[in-house]
Structures are given as structure tokens and as C-alpha cells.
Design a protein that fits this description.
heterodimer, A: alpha/beta, Glutaredoxin, 7-stranded mixed beta sheet, 42% helix, B: alpha+beta, 6-stranded antiparallel beta sheet, 10 strands, 11% strand, flat
Chain lengths: 172, 623
């Protein structure tokens, strides 16, 4: 009987895979970034987190100071690691931290901010992840040091002691 | 005109398939002689696809914008070389290329397999024709490269500049030779299974195809990786991007299959491994195509944005999977003489290798498709990056490397440890050497030492074999030596890399710990289809040596895109890598300078690995 069981089992597994691929094929929103090399930050308008207002990238990065655009999500464990560095940076006057809440649930994100304190000046939300792709993000967390609407440095993954000091050196 | 010829020869090519199937079925039972009409029509089919492919190239060369594919992906000001390579730099053209290789390979297969049984040849060709028909339908119905547009546009939309690169022009053909080669292995193993003919002779015959596909797949992945290194400008060689992963998975399966085939050639053992891996390699290649082409995974390879196309590949893929499952369960008979294994033997070593490879394969597979599953079941979205792969793969690399060192030293059936004193001696040498290298560095001592030790161990043992064994087992030795070199280069590259990012104005100097960077001047120049801005940077190292680097910005006119071309000074030991970018409305340029040791050795070692396959392919002529 054991031999007879295996084909059915495998068939069911492959049918499940088929079903999953089929579903994601229907929901997939094809989105190709223009190019990864564009080091100018793209122009965009985004929803302000937990409100119905919108804000354009021009308005976010308007001042002549450094900005750190930080992509985060409440479900992302490494985001908690880098939080301490973000808090430290948020004390500086030379830099403003902009949060980009990536594919998150509003309630979870709020809880995260309550638990940890928010280092962000402005938080924009990116519920479907297209804005992050436009920016050329590989995943969460990721941070972009921006000056004059140009991306100077990109930190893939959580900010570490090394990248923290590199950022500090650049904004000095 | 060319488009009409191409379009019709595709339709005639498809009808050839039906004729071949008709003759195959008629010939299968009736006579003992192979019906040569099957062979003739296979050649005719190949010839028709060649005509179709050439007419598409012609349409690209003459910028015939009445053809929709040409209009979407070409431009009159593009250099001729990229007009030609643009033919397969898009969805429609690359599928036509795939079809071309499919028909080429089945023709070669029929020519080369004259000594095999008639039924086996017919059945393989039959299964291959099913795949070919699938691709013909896919091409003609959902992505015809010869669609006509009217009124005829004056100018095309242009090829994405980041694809205008020599490495990328030959990357798809190489990769396809590997992928499509695996389709022959797939058809052939299904045919052999149906006829209950999985034997040592079969292994000897199919080994050539495994080696060819493996060789091209390895080179194809290498070219893609080299391209990402100097064109994408982030300065790495592997990003664990889903797109890279889907090419790595068939490679892992194929590499395992290669080892199993080498065993099966010597003795009837591991037959179910061989069969399952043959099926897995091809289905993984197909799933890869499906995942990146359908847009489920976002990537630079996403050409198709038509859900209909994705659905077609998906259904086709699962038809093939269920066909192979059906054949496997109804026809496959496990070898009865499954003698028990002695723990210290070559067979055990190969099995250990298999399980490690399967583990790596599963890690990559889970990392790539788990986010898709999670999103469908819980609409939760996650992304999986390098840390996941590093944590799961690196620790297992240590026993894998050790097994790879000792495994080939063992004998078939039963082995012992006599005369193996040098193994211990070399281990101690590797251990001492790695301790010396690692101890002065501020990195995790234990993990890195063990890793470097095991890589050095394999390195030394395989180097020794070059002297002791000479040409005996040369192919295995080259490939394993290449692998040890690859791991060593990657480790040292990670440990010793340095990076500087700074904003500089012309005339300014950046003072680093070990070097000074002076931004001397920029030079602007109009090129054929882009404007070039080249910076000149002088780097003075602490030891007094001076290096001049010229990173470049290219502003393409059609489509209007800025790309940054890294300037890379490669020498024997290190790569000096520099990119430069605009800081808008300012005199400043953002400069990124990296010193990456052993980069060239990463590429060289992969070439060595594939050379191992190459040598093995030609070895049969030695004997």
C-alpha cells in the first residue's frame, strides 16, 4: 500500500504548487524598475503613514540637508537591530530620517513605533512594495543616504557599526 | 519581407513536428529499422527554425520597424553588434533562440545515437517533439516575433543600455545551451525508463549530454555574474537575487546528476537518483523560465507582462511534470541488487555529496519560492536576502569541503585508511596556514579558520594530485581544484575587501588610511549613441605605487538613460573598482572606490570548474 500512496501524495503536492503559482500569476502586478543605476531618487508621490494625505518626493527632500530614507517593516527582525542607530542619527541636526513602511499592516506598524519610539521625521507607506522597487531596493531593511535628491550611499540590510560610522563620516 | 518568410517557416516547422510524431508512432512497433524519414524531418524542422531565426536577425540588422519586436527593442543608431544581439535580448527573440537550440539538439541527438536501440531513439525524439510543439505553440500564439505593425514607425524604441554589453550578448545563448541540453537528458531518461533500459550503457551514452549541458550552464551563469559585477556597479559577484537563484538550482541538480551518472557508468547503482535528477534538472530550468518570465518575481529578466503567457508556461510545465510522474510510477523499477554500503567507500562518498547538494538545492528553492507561497496563503509579504543563504549554506560548506577532499581518495565498494598519512599531514598544514592568516584580523576567529582550513585542505590535496596522478582523473581534479580555488577566492574576497564612498570636486583629494585619491579632471565626449563623461582619478598608494582610473557616466539618447560604467583595474591579486555618479546641480561627483582582492580568481576558478567538464567530455577519445 505504501507504494500506491506516494504517487497520490506527490500529485497533491504538485497540484498545490500549481495552484499557488496560478494564484500569484493572477495577483502579480508586473512592475519593472526603470533602471537600477539611476542614482537620482525617482520622483514619486506617496501616502503619509496612518493618514489620508499624500506627499511628493519634492516636498520630502526639499531642504539642503542630508536625508536617510529607511525602508522598514514591523515584521522585519533586523529592523529592530538597526533601530538603535537610527535613534542615534535622529538626534543629529544635519540629517533627517524618513521612514518607508514596506508591505506592512498599519496596526502592527503602530505598535512597533509605540514599543520602540519613532526615529522618523516623516513616514510614508508603501503597501504594495512598488515604491521600494522603484528605488531599487533588494529587501528590508535598506537605507539610502540622500543629499540634494541624489542617493549617495545605499545600505543593504540593517545598519551596522561600520555603515553607521560611514554615514556619520559622510554627513560630517 | 523577412518577417513573412520567418513567420511561415515557423508554421512549417510546427507541421514537421506532427509529421515526425506520425512517423514515429508508425515506426515504433512495426519494423526493426529506424525510419529515416524521422531524421529527415527533424533536419528539415531545424533548417526551418534557422531560416526563421535568420530572418529575425535580418529584420534587426536592417531596422525593419514594420516588425513589432524590432520596433520595441531596436533603434537605428544602435551599433551593429547590439542590433544582432538585440535579437535574443527580448522575450520573443529569446524564445525563438530556445526553439532553435531545441531543434538543433534533437538533430544532433539522432545523429549521435545511431548505436542505440531503435525504440529508445524514437521515444526520446517523441518526448522531445512534445516539448518542441509546446514551444512552437507558445511562440506562435502568445509571443510571435513577427507581428506586423502599420503604419510603419520611423524609429524604434531602443534596447535597454544596460543590456548593451558583450558579456550579456553571449550570456543567453550559453545559458540556453545548458537549459535545452537538460531537455535531452529529460526526454532520454523518460524514454529509457519506459523501456526499462536504465543501464550502464545508457549512462555512458547520456553522460556526454550531461557534460555538455553542465559546461554551458556553468559558463552561462558565470557570464551573467561577470556582467552584474561591472555593469550593475554594486561591486559584487552574487546577490542571491531570485533570478540568479533560478539558474543556480538547475546547476546544482545537474552537478549532482553528473556525479551520479559517473557512478552509474561504472556500476548499476543510484538509478533512482539519476532518474529523479534528470527530471528535476529540466523541470527546474522550466520553472525558472516561468518564474522570471511571468513577472511573479520582479527582475531585469521580466520581459513578458502578459498573464496569458505566464499561464501558458505554467500549464505546459505541469503537463510535463505530470507526464514524468506518470512514467516514473508506472514504468520505473528500482534495482533489485541494492547491496548494502560499506561506510568508507566511494559510493558512500557520492551519496554524501548528493545529500549535501540536495540540501543546498532545497535552501535555494525555499528561499526563492517561499515568499510566493506565503503571500498566496496569508497575504503576508516577505523578502529573503543574502543573510538567509549565508547562514544556511556556509556552515554546511565545511563538512562538504572535507567530504569532497576525502571522497575521491576512497575505493569502490570498500576502502580503508592505510597509506593515507598524507591526508593528516596536509590537514595540519592547512590548519596552521589558516590560523596564521586569520589570527591578525578582527573577524570571528573560529568559523573563519575552520572554513579557510577546509578550503585550503581541498586545495592542497587536489594540487598534490596533479603531481601524483598526472593525467589520471584529470577532469575530476581540475573541477575540484577549481571549486577549492573558488571558495578560497570568495572567502578572501569577503575578508579583505575595502570600500570608500565620498563626494569629490575636480581637483580635490581624498585621504584614506592606505591611499590618496585625487580627482584630476573630467572629459566629455559624444559617442555614437550616447554622451560620455569620463573622470580621471589618480590613486597614490602607501607604498608609492600610482594608479589612474577612469570611471565613466554614459548618457544614452534612446531610451534616455544614464548608466555608470565602472573602471576596473584588474591584476593578479586585486581588483581596483571605481564608479562615479552625478550629484545634481553641483560640481561634486559621488565617487565609490573599492579594493577587491582575488576577484579575477573567482572568474578563473569557475572557468577551471567548467574546464573540468570540457576535459571529461573529450576523455573518451583518449581511451
Amino acid at each position: 500500500m505504501k507504494i500506491k500512496f506516494l504517487p497520490f501524495f506527490l500529485t497533491i503536492i504538485f497540484l498545490t504548487i500549481f495552484f499557488v503559482f496560478y494564484k500569484s500569476l493572477q495577483t502579480s502586478n508586473i512592475y519593472t524598475p526603470k533602471t537600477n543605476l539611476e542614482k537620482n531618487i525617482p520622483l514619486f508621490t506617496a501616502d503619509i503613514f496612518d493618514s489620508n494625505k499624500k506627499i511628493s518626493s519634492e516636498d520630502i527632500f526639499k531642504d539642503n540637508i542630508y536625508y536617510l530614507l529607511n525602508i522598514w517593516a514591523s515584521w522585519c527582525a533586523p529592523c529592530r537591530e538597526e533601530h538603535i542607530f537610527l535613534m542615534d542619527l535622529s538626534k543629529s541636526k544635519k540629517i533627517e530620517i524618513i521612514g518607508l513602511n514596506y508591505k506592512d499592516k498599519i496596526d502592527n506598524a503602530k505598535k512597533f513605533l509605540n514599543d520602540f519610539k519613532s526615529p522618523y521625521k516623516i513616514i510614508i507607506s508603501d503597501l504594495d512594495g512598488t515604491l521600494s522597487i522603484e528605488l531599487g531596493a533588494y529587501g528590508v531593511p535598506e537605507s539610502y543616504l540622500i543629499y540634494n535628491k541624489k542617493i549617495l550611499k545605499k545600505v543593504v540590510g540593517p545598519i551596522s557599526t561600520n555603515s553607521f560610522s560611514a554615514i556619520n563620516k559622510l554627513i560630517k | 519581407m523577412a518577417s513573412i518568410v520567418g513567420s511561415y517557416s515557423l508554421i512549417f516547422g510546427l507541421s514537421c513536428s506532427f509529421l515526425i510524431i506520425f512517423f514515429s508512432i508508425k515506426n515504433f512497433k512495426n519494423t526493426q529499422v529506424f525510419d529515416n524519414r524521422i531524421l529527415s524531418f527533424t533536419f528539415l524542422q531545424f533548417f526551418l527554425v534557422v531560416i526563421s531565426f535568420f530572418s529575425l536577425i535580418l529584420a534587426f540588422v536592417y531596422s525593419d520597424f514594420s516588425n513589432e519586436t524590432v520596433f520595441n527593442h531596436s533603434h537605428t543608431t544602435k551599433p551593429l553588434f547590439y542590433k544582432i544581439s538585440g535579437t535574443w535580448g527580448n522575450h520573443e527573440g529569446s524564445l525563438l533562440l530556445w526553439l532553435l537550440v531545441l531543434t538543433l539538439f534533437i538533430s544532433i541527438f539522432l545523429l549521435k545515437s545511431k548505436k542505440q536501440k531503435k525504440q529508445y531513439r524514437i521515444l526520446t525524439s517523441l518526448i522531445q517533439q512534445i516539448i518542441i510543439i509546446g514551444f512552437f505553440f507558445f511562440l506562435i500564439m502568445t509571443s510571435n516575433p513577427f507581428n506586423y505593425i502599420f503604419p510603419i514607425p520611423k524609429e524604434g524604441l531602443g534596447l535597454n543600455p544596460i543590456l548593451q554589453d558583450p558579456a550579456l550578448a553571449i550570456h543567453p545563448p550559453m545559458l540556453y545551451l545548458g537549459y535545452v541540453g537538460s531537455s535531452i537528458i529529460f526526454s532520454s531518461s523518460l524514454a529509457a525508463m519506459t523501456l526499462n533500459d536504465i543501464s550502464r550503457d545508457w549512462a555512458k551514452h547520456i553522460k556526454q549530454w550531461v557534460l555538455v549541458s553542465w559546461f554551458f550552464l556553468t559558463l552561462g551563469i558565470l557570464l551573467g555574474s561577470i556582467w552584474a559585477y561591472y555593469e550593475l556597479g554594486w561591486g559584487g559577484f552574487w546577490f542571491w537575487d531570485p533570478v540568479e537563484n533560478v539558474s543556480l538550482m538547475p546547476w546544482l541538480a545537474l552537478t549532482t546528476l553528473l556525479h551520479c551518472i559517473l557512478v552509474l557508468e561504472k556500476k548499476l547503482f543510484l538509478t533512482s537518483w539519476v532518474v529523479i535528477l534528470s527530471i528535476a534538472t529540466f523541470t527546474l530550468s522550466m520553472s525558472g523560465t516561468f518564474l522570471v518570465r511571468s513577472g511573479i518575481l520582479n527582475s531585469v529578466h521580466t520581459f513578458a507582462n502578459d498573464p496569458e503567457r505566464g499561464l501558458f508556461i505554467l500549464i505546459f510545465l505541469f503537463c510535463l511534470i505530470f507526464l514524468s510522474l506518470f512514467i516514473f510510477f508506472f514504468f520505473f523499477k528500482t534495482d533489485k541488487n541494492n547491496n548494502s554500503l560499506f561506510w568508507l567507500s566511494k559510493e558512500t562518498a557520492i551519496l554524501v555529496n548528493n545529500w549535501f547538494m540536495v540540501y543546498f538545492l532545497v535552501v535555494v528553492l525555499v528561499g526563492t519560492i517561499y515568499p510566493i507561497f506565503l503571500e498566496v496563503f496569508s497575504s503576508e509579504k516577505i523578502s529573503i536576502g543574502p543573510p538567509f543563504y549565508n547562514k544556511l549554506i556556509i556552515p554546511f560548506l565545511i563538512p562538504f569541503l572535507l567530504a569532497m577532499t576525502i571522497g575521491p581518495k576512497l575505493k569502490w565498494i570498500k576502502s580503508d585508511l592505510r597509506n593515507k598519512g598524507y591526508l593528516i599531514l596536509f590537514f595540519i598544514i592547512s590548519l596552521l596556514l589558516s590560523i596564521m592568516i586569520i589570527k591578525n584580523l578582527s573577524i570571528n576567529f573560529l568559523v573563519n579558520t575552520v572554513l579557510v582550513t577546509s578550503a585550503f585542505y581541498l586545495f592542497f590535496i587536489t594540487s598534490r594530485d596533479f603531481f601524483v596522478k598526472g593525467f589520471n582523473k584529470l577532469s575530476q581534479n581540475i573541477a575540484h581544484f577549481g571549486f577549492s580555488l573558488l571558495i578560497l577566492s570568495i572567502l578572501f574576497n569577503n575578508i579583505f575587501s575595502t570600500e570608500i564612498i565620498s563626494n569629490l570636486k575636480i581637483g580635490e583629494t581624498f585621504e584614506g588610511k592606505n591611499f590618496k585619491i585625487k580627482f584630476e579632471k573630467i572629459k566629455q565626449k559624444e559617442e555614437y549613441n550616447y554622451k560620455s563623461i569620463k573622470g580621471k582619478f589618480k590613486i597614490e598608494n602607501l607604498d608609492g605605487s600610482i594608479e589612474v582610473l577612469y570611471p565613466e557616466l554614459r548618457i544614452y539618447n534612446q531610451p534616455n538613460i544614464v548608466t555608470s560604467e565602472a573602471d576596473i583595474k584588474t591584476n593578479f591579486l586585486t581588483d581596483k573598482f571605481m564608479t562615479m555618479n552625478y550629484v545634481q546641480n553641483q560640481d561634486y561627483f559621488n565617487v565609490r572606490y573599492q579594493v577587491k582582492p582575488f576577484m579575477i580568481w573567482i572568474w578563473l576558478s569557475v572557468i577551471l570548474i567548467s574546464l573540468g567538464g570540457f576535459v571529461s567530455f573529450f576523455k573518451r577519445y583518449e581511451n
